[in-house]
Design goal:
Helices cover about 60% and strands about 5% of the residues. With about 110 residues, the chain is mainly alpha-helical. The protein is elongated, with a radius of gyration of 22 Å.
Amino acid sequence: MKRITLNFIVDLFSFISLLGLIFTGIVMGFVLPPGTGGLGRGYHGGRGAEEIKSLWTMTRHEWGDIHFIVSIVFIVLMLVHLVLHWTWIKCYFKSLFSFSPKNCDNLD
């Protein structure tokens, strides 16, 4: 597999997992917030007694498990991303500190 194809795949899955983290974070923070006793954030202050204990048949803790797994996947993908770009990172820092970078031509 070509390196550019591998970079694209890693970046695509990283972006998808980031969207998953954002979505599950919003669900846990706003739809099923902690400490509401099963009442959603929108139902405080006497607006109604509807209980929101789950979303799509999953409780807040189950959403938290998904959030944790997706975060581990994201961290692993970011580590792979750093490994794939390690030469570029080294050359960049060498150029910042005015060292003469070796093998840093054509790293676009």
